[in-house]
Predict the structure.
Amino acid sequence: MKVRHTLTASRTFAAAPASVQKAVLKQVALLQHNLQHPSLHAKKFDESTGMWQARVNRGWRFYFSIEGDTYVIHKLIPHSK
């Protein structure tokens, strides 16, 4: 699978702390190889839009959709605990 990022996700990634950026890169690599990898905790977030949610770490999540053979990362956000 391929990965593409929206401009919104790219901007948030650039502004995120270095530790979060490193974790995002790791989790997206895991996503490319296995949507069901346990550390992702990936789940369908919104059935009507086809949006999925996955865990970056305890404090951050990313939202993505699946378009053909590409994961499109739409948002990267801090997650309230």
User: Anything to note?
Assistant: DSSP finds two helices and five strands in the chain. The beta strands are 2-5, 43-46, 51-57, 60-67, 70-78. The chain has one domain: 2-78. The radius of gyration is 12 Å.
